[in-house]
Design goal:
Blueprint: E1 2-7, H1 11-21, E2 27-33, H2 36-46, E3 50-54, H3 62-71, E4 78-82, H4 87-95, E5 101-103, H5 108-119, H6 131-135, H7 155-165, H8 170-177, H9 181-195, H10 200-210
Parallel strand pairs: 1-2, 1-3, 3-4, 4-5
Helix pairs in contact: 2-3, 7-9, 7-10, 8-9, 9-10
Length: 213
């Protein structure tokens, strides 16, 4: 069971998302907040597996929530929920630790699939990332050494990177390539090291910027 926490200042939106998720197997809404400050206070105590986070809230925004929880190393895997394709807000959220984003009118199947992927450590960054997000890549803060020119990826690493960009989990990649999941994990680790980033989200974004995929 994946425990989900909802953060949105609009009651109807929260009620709607909760009602949808109650129809899904394997997902349980364990809490919700009508504002950013309540989310900051609650989430460390509730410890959800995934947070669904609205970014545009008065007083304490979704970005504030991400930054505050990340500051204390208490940020769970988080999906940004937005009513429109807000490139700048999505970029800011990803820079602050979000694992990706979904539109609020996404079908239930896609919402549940996204929750499961993020709970498993995957990302929701797709190759169809908008130009403004790509143009902001250079502002991403890298937490360890990044190479000006990444070390060349092998053919298999490039293949796996493309599948990562498609949002596929390690298990899905392993199944599609007929290799062990542990082998895929090793390749992913090598990819992160060669590109000079610390997580899969930044690996996909950096690869898109560099034209590696």
């Amino acid at each position: 069971m994946i425990n989900v926490y909802l953060v949105d200042d609009q009651n109807l939106v929260r009620q709607g998302v909760r009602a949808l998720l109650e129809l899904a197997e394997g997902v349980n809404v364990i809490g919700e907040a009508d504002g950013g400050q309540k989310a900051i206070d609650d989430i460390p105590n509730v410890q959800p597996d995934v947070v669904l986070l609205d970014m545009r809230m008065p007083k304490v925004s979704g970005l504030d929530v991400l930054n505050e929880l990340k500051k204390t190393d208490q940020l769970p895997p988080t999906i940004i929920l937005t009513t429109f394709d807000d490139d700048e807000m999505v970029l800011a959220g990803v820079k602050s630790g979000a694992m990706g984003y979904l539109l609020k009118d996404v079908p239930l199947e896609d919402l549940v699939d996204g929750i499961k992927k993020v709970a498993a450590g995957e990302t929701l960054i797709r190759p169809q990332v908008t130009k403004r997000i790509l143009s902001g890549i250079e502002d991403l803060k890298i937490d360890f050494m990044s190479f000006d020119i990444p070390e060349a990826l092998t053919t298999r690493e490039t293949e796996i990177l493309r599948l990562m960009a498609g949002g596929h989990s390690n298990k899905e990649i392993a199944n599609s390539l007929f290799v062990a999941e542990g082998t895929v994990k090793n390749h992913v680790s090598n990819i992160l090291s060669k590109i000079g980033v610390r997580d899969r989200t930044r690996a996909v974004l950096k690869a898109l910027e560099l034209g590696l995929i």
